[in-house]
Amino acid sequence: MTINPVDSLNGEIRVPGDKSIAHRAVILNSIGEGRAIIENFPIGKDCLNTIEALKSMGAIIDLDKYNRRIIIEGVGLNGLTKPSFPIHAGNSGTTARLLVGLLAGQSFPSSITGDSHLRRRPMDRVIIPLSHMGANIHAKYGGSYLPIYIEPVHLQGIDYTLPIASAQVKSAILLASLYASSPSVIRENTKSRNHTEIMLNAMGATIDIVDKNIHIEPEPTLYAQDMYIPGDISSAAFMITAGLLVPNSTVLIRDIGLNNTRSGILDIYRDMGGKIDVKNIKEKTGELRGDIKVVTSKLNATTIQGEIIPRLIDEIPIIALAATQASGTTIIKDAGELTVKESNRILSTVDTLSKFGANIEARADGMIITGPTPLYGNTVDCAKDHRIAMMATIGGLIAKGQTTIKNSQWIDISFPGFFNTLNQLSDVD
Q1: DSSP bridge partners of 148
Q2: Rg (CA), the chain
Q3: For the purposes of burial, counting CB atoms within 10 Å of the CB of 375, is it exposed (0-12), middle (13-18) or buried (19 or more)?
Q4: Number of folded domains in the chain?
Q5: Quick one: which of 10, 3, 5, 54 has its CA closest to 30?
Q6: Residue 228 is inside which H or E element, if any?
Q7: Is 207 in the same domain as 282?
Q8: Is the C-alpha dihedral spanning 53, 39, 205, 312 positive or negative?
Q9: Active-site annotation holder among 314, 334, 427, 429
């Protein structure tokens, strides 16, 4: 894909539904009682992998791609059946890690694998707490990587403190806890995204949250819930950043998820001087959504660290691009989790932006960026990472000269139609 700089971006757009919510909606409604209609479902490859996984275990899921809608007939907490083949999670870490938690409590053996990239991502952070619950899990290549083999066993509840802020690990434990013989307590030092807790509460689980401690009772009856998936803020982040950086721009993005555990990018951009207005706030099934209006802004450097990191971990590459245009030195730290994403996102972000001419330096847990610096078009390989490809695309809009994005098809993992959406704001050649 070839990108040329543009003079302005103006218009109104929508982005795909939130992946994190969509994965959980498929899993939990599949083990619920009754029928659920899920609107604005994202048709990216990751979420489709989750659908196929649940269908392979007997869930009845009807996908209407044109209307971005799925209909799920729940089979109940104990209604899943043994899949005929190993479950293939593709490139989706969320699919793999959440399903390990779900499958740990089933009465049948199962196995999970993924593509070559997912098989290099660590799974021990999920395997360890589930093993403490009694789960019988075996993994290849040192016991930490896919493929994973799971044997049926009776689980016990757990009192577990998460060593890192990870919604995937937390959700895996919560799913396993539904099948345990006793209650579980999950303790967080730093709060991570809470979509699973919100959804379980809406569906009838006995779950109590006190500060950063989650108490959940086993063997609930979960009732299927109709849902509207709000727009994914991690996808909207690229359009928000484009609106801030491209001159003479006003961009309105409709129906974006505003869950407080996910909206850290809005707080950071406002702190940097970004002109961001949120309006038309609504709530359904416990999730907030609203419209985000962005106007071109002069940005100032900031420091990003500590408890805000889990609230914007997926958005750090695009925030790093914004920092190249901010006045001063931006410091990002406490973000070591970036090293185990689809790529090592610290290194791939620094490498990509360096090719554009940015003044950026990698650190073990983050990066240091000094700006503002002019960017220059280049040929960029996205390291088969969808977020790096989208970040480089937005960089190409403000760079001098032409930018070529190699392997841009990886964007379809999370944001099919990304370039078409961008074209609604401006002609991107």
Answers
A1: 112, 139
A2: 21
A3: buried
A4: 2
A5: 54
A6: strand 227-228
A7: no
A8: positive
A9: 314
Say how far apart CA 353 and CA 336 lie, in whole Å.
19
**Statement to judge: residues 30 and 81 lie in one domain:** yes
- Asked whether residue 98 falls in the same domain as residue 213, the answer is yes
Catalytic annotation present for 314: yes
Structure tokens at 305: 């660290």
10, 249 contact by CB (below 8 A): yes
Same domain, 50 and 194: yes
233-245 vs 264-271: helix crossing angle, rounded to 10: 20
**Residue that is last in its domain, among 228, 252, 284:** 228
State pTM to two decimals.
0.93
Instruction: Determine the Cα angle at 419 with ends 408 and 120, to 5°.
Output: 30
pLDDT at position 427, please?
54
- Spatial separation of the C-alpha atoms in residues 322 and 232, rounded to whole Å: 19
Residues 400 and 402: their CA atoms lie apart, in Å, by: 7
Question: Residue 134: in which H helix or E strand, if any?
Answer: none
pLDDT in tens, 302-341: 999 999 999 999 999 999 999 999 999 999 999 999 988 8
